[in-house]
Design brief:
The complex is a heterodimer of chains A (293) and B (291). Chain A is an all-alpha fold and 293 residues long. Chain A has 13 helices and no strands. The chains are: A mainly alpha (293), B mainly alpha (291).
């Protein structure tokens, strides 16, 4: 008797305590998610009522070269940023994990871009990349249109993205490295393994679960890149079409041009794409991620 | 004795060379880390130096490294073109409200999901997981339409709105509450505490570190976010530092000293906080890592 009463009150407290979060999620996320799916089948504009138009938005999307270019740009941006960014972050983490002085200072410096808004970061890089007066062309003694050349602009954006995230990724990897038992290195030392052998045969397998998590996170955020491009590549930039990511296209279609139906279709596609890429990663991880130890 | 001598002779140079190669390895690491650090710092330094130059001097070819005379006009111009007082206030209020609601609601739900048994708990928790898997952009159009239909665009509430609850925060704090031993809770019940007291007096105080981490994460995320504030509040006086700064880009396309001054003014508060609470920032954001 007493126990059922206790259970009842426990359940009441349970519902009461999760209520704000669950109601909030339903209103702010679950319902909007369903709404976006519905909107993608309508001709919704900036304001006013709209009609169902079936698959029109998706047909238009899959026939649009701008859309396919944006899809490729998003994937290309991942190819440009993820491997290089992760390798640099891993190197940085290994260095920060060695017995050196001033680790705290180095860590703080590399982490700094994390607390600066990408808008401010993009602003200064845009200035440094300036083709006429930028410090980068001046130092290199070149005259390159870093931000207006259609082939280069996306690479320049990738450089800024890697610069911004390398410290953050390194801090995450560092916490993985610190969990590798010292005894493994001592054993490897006794076996006469060089530092480089130790890295590939001890460090890498041991840190692979953290590495996998960081790669997934970096892939997702690269596929969703928006703010750096929005700031560095303006509407009138000749490199816009060859640079804009899906999220940039989504923003322009939904909130600049104002076709919310079409914009919704783009964002639904982006979610599908992220799902595919993530699934591929989880499928591929069996070959290299080591959860045994 | 003879053999000992030989072995000592043999090993001594070896040890010496190992130590030497370790030292040279360290020197290489210092050099690489130092070069990297220069690359990390330089853009901020260049921002600072440019902001004190006149526009003519900034565009000088070849550029001069230091300003020939320190000039504060760009700061005056940036302060004139953007209502920085409002931007600081709006950003501050947005962060305070988001952190408070996140901390309160996520703690409550995190505790309930970790320590209380009730029907449908797993089903409700799956809502949290679903939200975490979806990118925030998929919610943006309907969130904006909701806000617009309520006539609440261009308000502080609009800035706080999508961040009132946090699925990730709930998930993160649930992990923390799961780490609290059940014995502690049972003992409190035996002492006559009710569920609310167990939550507020026993469990909540044990989550301080996690709470600090999620608060810092929430604050930094809110501060750096661009798309939502840009859409929700189009009145310059109601913008955040980030969205306000982005409008400067169109106004002063070629006046880089003003753009740099504006950037510096907008990043100052967060960087100052970071320099003071550097350890908490890094460890907090690293603890919430993966999101």
């Amino acid at each position: 008797m007493k126990k059922t009463k206790l259970l009842n009150s426990e359940a009441k407290w349970g519902y009461g305590l999760v209520a704000p979060t669950i109601i909030g999620l339903l209103i702010l996320n679950i319902w909007p998610f369903i709404q976006t799916l519905i909107l993608s089948f309508t001709n919704a504009k900036k304001f006013g009522s709209y009609d169902f138009v079936g698959l029109t938005n998706y047909v238009r999307m899959f026939q649009s070269t701008e859309f396919w270019q944006a899809t490729w740009n998003s994937i290309y941006f991942c190819i440009l940023t993820v491997p290089v960014g992760i390798i640099l972050a891993l190197l940085l983490a290994v260095f920060l994990n060695s017995k050196i002085k001033g680790k705290v200072v180095f860590r703080a410096i590399y982490f700094l871009p994390m607390v600066v808004a990408p808008v401010a970061v993009a602003m200064v890089w845009k200035w440094m990349f300036n083709s006429n007066y930028g410090i980068i062309n001046d130092v290199l003694g070149l005259h390159i249109d870093w931000l207006t050349n259609p082939h280069l602009a996306i690479v320049s954006c990738a450089v800024v993205s890697i610069w911004s995230s390398v410290g953050y990724d390194a801090v995450l990897l560092l916490s993985g490295l610190q969990n590798v038992p010292k005894t493994l290195y001592e054993a490897a030392d006794l076996d006469g393994a060089t530092k480089i052998q130790q890295f590939f045969h001890v460090t890498l397998p041991m840190v692979s679960p953290t590495l996998f998590m960081v790669i997934i996170m970096r892939l997702m955020s690269s596929l969703k890149v928006y703010d750096i491009m929005y700031m560095m590549i303006s509407e009138s930039n000749p490199a816009l079409l060859d640079t804009q990511s899906l999220m940039y296209l989504f923003y322009r279609e939904s909130f600049v041009i104002g076709s919310k139906g079409y914009g919704s279709a783009i964002v639904v596609w982006t979610v599908v794409l992220i799902g595919i890429v993530t699934a591929l990663q989880f499928w591929g991880q069996k070959k290299w991620v080591n959860y045994d130890v | 004795m003879n053999t000992n001598e030989i072995s000592a002779e043999k090993t001594a140079p070896k040890l010496h060379s190992v130590k030497k190669s370790r030292n040279s390895g360290k020197i290489i690491i210092y050099i690489l880390l130092g070069l990297g650090a220069v690359l990390m710092i330089f853009p901020f330094l260049w921002m600072l130096l440019t902001s004190f130059k006149t526009n003519a001097q900034a565009m000088q070819v070849p550029p001069t490294f230091f300003p020939t005379q320190w000039n504060f006009d760009s700061y005056a111009k940036a302060l004139e073109s953007l209502p920085f007082g409002n931007l600081y206030l709006n950003t501050g209020l947005m962060i305070v409200f988001r952190v408070l609601t996140t901390a309160a609601f996520c703690s409550m739900a995190g505790f309930a999901f970790a320590k209380l048994k009730f029907k449908g708990r797993n089903l409700l928790f799956s809502l949290i997981l679903i939200q975490m898997m979806l990118p925030s952009q998929i919610f943006i159009i309907p969130q904006f339409q909701m806000l617009a239909s309520l006539g609440l665009t261009n308000t502080i509430f609009a800035l706080v709105f999508p961040g009132i609850v946090s699925a990730f925060g709930t998930f993160f704090l649930r992990q923390t509450y799961m780490g609290i031993p059940d014995e502690l809770i049972e003992a409190a019940y035996l002492d006559g505490a009710n569920t609310w007291q167990v939550f507020t007096k026993i469990c909540f105080p044990l989550t301080k570190t996690a709470l600090a981490a999620i608060s810092i994460f929430t604050a930094v995320f809110a501060y750096t976010d661009l798309m939502w504030p840009l859409i929700a509040n189009t009145d310059l006086n109601m913008m955040t530092l980030t969205s306000g700064l982005s409008t400067l880009n169109g106004q002063f396309t070629t006046n880089y000293p003003v753009l740099m001054a504006g950037s510096l003014l907008s990043m100052l508060p967060m960087v100052a906080l970071y320099l003071v609470f550097q350890k908490q920032f890094i460890e907090g954001i690293a603890a919430t890592g993966g999101k």
